[in-house]
Amino acid sequence: MSVTVRIDPTLCRGHAICALFFSDGVELDRWGFGRVVDDRADSDRLLKRARRAAAACPNGAFIIGDDAAGPTSSGVAIT
Amino acid sequence: MTVVPALSVEPAATDARPSAPLTIGGFGDPGTLLLSGPTATPEGEDLAGHSQRWGLLPDLDGAGVRALLRDSRLDGRGGGGFPVSRKVETARMSPGHAVVIVNASESEPISRKDRALCTQRPHLVLDGAALLARALDVDEVVVHVHRGPASASGALSLAMAIRRAARLPDPGWRLSEGPDRYVSGESSAVAGYVDGGEARPRFTDRPLAVAGPSGRPTVVSNAETVAQLAVLARIGPMAWNALGAPSSPGPRLVTLAGAVTRPGRVLELTGPGTIGDLLAADGVPGPPAAVLVGGFAGTWIRGDEAWQTPFSRESLDCLGASPGCGLLAVLPHGGCGLLETARIVRYLAGESAGQCGTCVAGLPRLAEDMEALAGGALRRRGLRKMSALADTVLGSGACGHPDGVVRLIRSTLDVFADDVVRHLAGSPCRGGADPPILLVPDPAPGPRTDPGGWA
Question: Quick one: closest CA in A to B352, which residue?
Fold first, then answer.
């Protein structure tokens, strides 16, 4: 089971709670806005943390995605 | 934007093939294709004139059009340069009925080529749009423009009405007019607006061609891009492809700006021409101080280097630049590149959609730093902090807006390195009092966050 996480920067308001729970995968910039540096939540431990981060974000900006969903995972990027 | 090839549909570029002769010209000039026909008039070319020169739209089915896209290797001309064929094939593989949008918003303030094309050759644009609709088997196309005094909406809506009356085998046309803001021309903003939302970029986890705001696969294609499709359907993909520089398919439109004879002039390049050839065609006598290539979010190239550089994707790529939207903005000798960049960065900071925190917080700071640098008020430590700030901002947004600002600043610091040293020592250019060279619009007071501004 492989799951990836994302932060929607249009929703992030810099509460930084995701960085407490998903600390290995999220970095905060100087204003406290989070950025995903490692998007894999591929163990039970990481998945649990990701779920906590997603539940705790007051803006719903921390998103857990299903890696099997759609052609994004096959590397098609379209500008 | 990064492009990760997943579906290899186009053949490799062949530099060995003989290249077409070099031609550069504007509307009505000999040797042009897209711009061939009458010289520019207020009304643009009508359907009779268009049909006389180009004939009827070739009777191609969807598979035929897709073969054209594949064989020609037509690349997007809005800025991203993404192969159209791959967008179309992705949309076809994705579930749902596709949405086709022609993006004629041209939100790049001093670019003119899309507006000029839609005003002067509306039927060429609509021919191409009709072909794109066939490729995706859809029966409606939305053509999106920005409101404003220079909008091509009048010419386009007239051309649509004439074609309906003439009962051409067209898809249904819908003209969409949106707010005239810089980021509103970005493809996810256009797709969102057409879907009934705000004209602001979206955070998307899937490409638009997989699933747009409506959930349906959405193909957004620039106005020049579809006009090129209309041309290549007539002359054949191989002939069209060979009209580009080796490894950069087809003819290209550019807009000249800054210290040129006629700022805002649109030229068509056929064959392996350099930036120098394009500028010389407008009477620029020799290499200027520098050229900003590809738009406000583009890349500065030193004048002598730019003069020799072919205006092709591959050659520009070697210099970290890209054709972008086709803008060539010229900085003359004696002009201050730091000052011009500071004006652009201030403008771009005001054009943030106000959605992503790092963009909202970071761009005004970068603008302040650039202004301090241009005014001789920044010191080495300040410059280091600005560079660190730029690193933070890069890649932070839902769209490429902050990245464009960072790219511009980095290329400025690189190309104008000698000027930077002088400014850091507290002696800015005398040019500070001179009128602006690039006609950068007045900046907005800050990011516009009220939804009314994006409707």
Answer: A10
Tell me, yes or no, if B146 comes closer than 8 A to chain A by beta carbon: no
User: What is the C-alpha to C-alpha distance for residues A35 and B397, in angstroms, rounded to an integer?
Assistant: 10
Query: How high is the pLDDT of residue B195?
Result: 97
Q: Which residue of A has its CA nearest to B87?
A: A78
Q: How many domains does chain A have?
A: 1
Dist. CA B72–CA B83, nearest whole Å? 10
Answer positive or negative: Cα dihedral of A57, A58, A60, A61: negative
List, in order, residues 6 or more apart from B24 with CB less than 8 Å away: B31, B267, B268, B269, B270, B273, B277, B278, B281
Mutation target to probe the A interface, by most A beta carbons within 10 A, among B7, B206, B216 is B206
Contact list, A9 vs chain B (CB under 8 Å): 203, 355-359, 396-398
Q: How far apart, in whole angstroms, are the C-alpha atoms of residue B37 and residue B231?
A: 13
Q: Which of B42, B43, B180 is nearest to B106 (CA)?
A: B180
**Contact check, Cβ <8 Å, A79/B187:** yes
Please tell me the total count of domains within chain B: 3
| Chain A residues within an 8 Å CB radius of B2 | 77
C-alpha closest to that of B120 among B143, B157, B152, B168? B152
CATH number of the domain that residue A34 is part of: 3.30.70.20
Asked if B211 contacts B94 with a C-beta cutoff of 8 angstroms, the reply is yes
pLDDT reported for residue B248: 84
B4: in domain: no
Final residue belonging to a domain, choices B218, B241, B264: B241
Domain limits for position B357: 337-454
Spans in chain B with pLDDT lower than 70: 1-19, 431-434, 446-451
Q: Name the residue among B90, B203, B359 with its Cβ closest to that of A78.
A: B90
Q: Report if residue B1 sits inside a domain.
A: no
Q: Chain A residues within 8 A (CB-CB) of chain B?
A: 6, 8-14, 29-31, 33, 35, 63, 65, 70-72, 74-79
ipTM: 0.81
- Residue type at position B134: R
At residue B356, the pLDDT reads: 95
